[in-house]
Amino acid sequence: MIFEKNVTEFSTMLHRDIYMRALRLVPPEISLAEIEKETPEMAESGREFYHFMLELYSDMFCNPEIYGMTPGAYEDMAQHRKWNYMRLRVKNVDDYFCLSETQIASYVRFIHEMALFCHISEGCCYLTYDVFEKAKDLKRVTPVNKQKLLLPIQMVMKNLERVGLELQDDGEKIQVICEKYPDMFLAASALRKTVEDTIQNPVSKKLKYYFGEYMDTLDFRLLKEPYYPDFEDHIRHLSDKDREAVITLDALAKEYKCKSDYKNCLEYKYKGKYVMSVWTHGLYHEPTRQHDTWRRYVRCRVAGTVNSSYLEQVEIEGDDFKQYFMRHLNRCSGCTPAHLNSQNAIKKIFGRSVRFCSINIATEIAGLTINDLPYIRKFIEMRIREIEGEKNYA
Fold first, then answer.
1. Helix (H/G/I), strand (E/B), else coil: 288
2. What is the spatial distance between Cα 105 and Cα 102, in angstroms, rounded to a whole number?
3. Which end is more exposed in the chain, N or C (fewer Cβ atoms within 10 Å of the end residue's Cβ)?
4. Can you give the three-state secondary structure of 128-183, one letter per residue?
5. Where is average pLDDT lowest: 143-147, 201-205, 345-349?
6. What is the pLDDT at residue 338?
7. Which segments within the chain are labelled E, that is strand?
């Protein structure tokens, strides 16, 4: 199965999560390019592990029930109701929301735990009995509220045989065998242990768990040094049209001499002041009666403020811009009971009462397209004028 980046709609949350895990794997020609020059055997092992995980995700996507998974469980429960409505009103809704990711993680985490604890000697990968029992206990590495959603470990081990991963007891230890990819655990173990080291010995307290996802994306660049994503890492998995929009927006921000930071998302500042953020992963429009699929999208936020001069600038731009501004305000969607009950979150914008999640307003575009860029240009200009005004006032 080929995981194509232009696929943007998914019938169930489970299919969505499997597909996106596969799509976000860093291609070996990128993640192993430098390693190939120094340790070709490690690079070959990394390629093996990459292709093994692709085969696992492919078989999962096509045969989720065989893997003990429940595609459609969330959608059957939700019945097109929005998450922000259900999370405050429907009992045990968190179990349904976390179900697909936890079922997938039952397999992936077990593989990762074996990679962490395994020993590799003379081409043989094995686990001692005590660490094998530890690797099987996935509750150790699963939040308490999700532990009951884990799949039975015996089912996990049995189903991994479908993609050629077998565990054999030779009377002294548990051998980990994959005939098609015999050396894959050399790189898998090196990456998992490197990730663990970044947690135990973080580069900073703030970044203690920053590199944890690198095992999920198979970013072997971490083996050489702490690696922080560049612009391409954030857009590699995007569809062609989303990629075009984000590349053009990045160029637009730099046209205004905004400095970029790609460590967590795409973030832009002007003279040290926050201007804009763009998120390219993990955001989805929920199924509705009109559009019965999960649709992934890119989100853009441009900072603003609640003051008369800012709103005056909006009005000066004309009715079309004003309507766009009102459509894309960062309204609170009922994220917490406190926000719903607080009158402080409500502000008057052009005579209308609007509930916000933050002190200041912002432009929120959920589903960035190339057509949004003329409007975003104006918002960036307004934000820069505001920053320059603060500087002159100071």
1. coil
2. 5
3. C
4. CHHHHHHHHCHHHHCCHHHHHHCCCHHHHHHHHHHHCCEEEECCCCEEEECCCCCC
5. 345-349
6. 63
7. 9-10, 119-121, 124-127, 166-169, 174-177, 259-261, 266-270, 273-279, 284-285, 294-296, 299-303, 346-349, 352-355, 362-366
Average pLDDT over residues 213-229: 96
- Which residue type, as a one-letter code, is found at position 220? F
Helices (H) and strands (E) in the chain — how many of each? 17, 14
For residue 364, give the amino acid letter.
E
Lowest pLDDT segment from 124-133, 146-155, 315-324, 382-391 = 382-391
Residue 154: alpha-carbon gap to chain centroid: 29
Phi, psi values for residue 273, rounded to 5°? -105, 140
Q: Token pair 């429907």 is at which residue?
A: 90
Record the tokens describing residue 149, joined without a space.
């959603």
User: Given this model, what pLDDT does residue 339 score?
Assistant: 62
Is residue 126 within 8 A of residue 118, CB to CB? The reply is yes
* 294-296, strands of its sheet edge to edge: 9-10, 294-296, 284-285
CA dihedral (79, 142, 107, 8) positive or negative: positive
